Amino acid sequence: xxxxxxxxxxxxxxxxxxxxxxxxxxxxxxxxxxxxxxxxxxxxxxxxxxxxxxxxxxxxxxxxxxxxxxxxxxxxxxxxxxxxxxxxxxxxxxxxxxxxxxxxxxxxxxxxxxxxxxxxxxxxxxxxxxxxxxxxxxxxx
Length: 141
Prior knowledge:
Radius of gyration: 31 Å
Shape: elongated
Helix content: 25-40%
Structural class: alpha/beta
Number of helices: 4
Strand content: 15-25%
Strand order of the largest sheet: 5-4-3-6-7
Order of helices and strands: EEHHEEEHEHE
């Protein structure tokens, strides 16, 4: 505190310099404490197979690609080039994923389709045991 004397008497004023110093130190401490890690999409790097015999067997299997098409309001599913009825999709996916160590399903649909059939295919893939689901788009023609 500073005191000044004058004609009007004693007047007290707060010295704000130490207050500003304390606030700047607190600001620096909080900036260091708060983590500044960027948040993005999780990605995975392909790993080398652990078992060579299993790797050869897995290499012969094509990736599971589920194509969804919609014509006239009717949704059709195709699993690795074979037409699959909607009622039997979960059973076919379960059987196909049971033979695989890598449980990834590639879902391919046109961008012009409604979201509901794609969401239903993703949910059925998860129900069948897929660990990872990749969404693909059809190439522009």
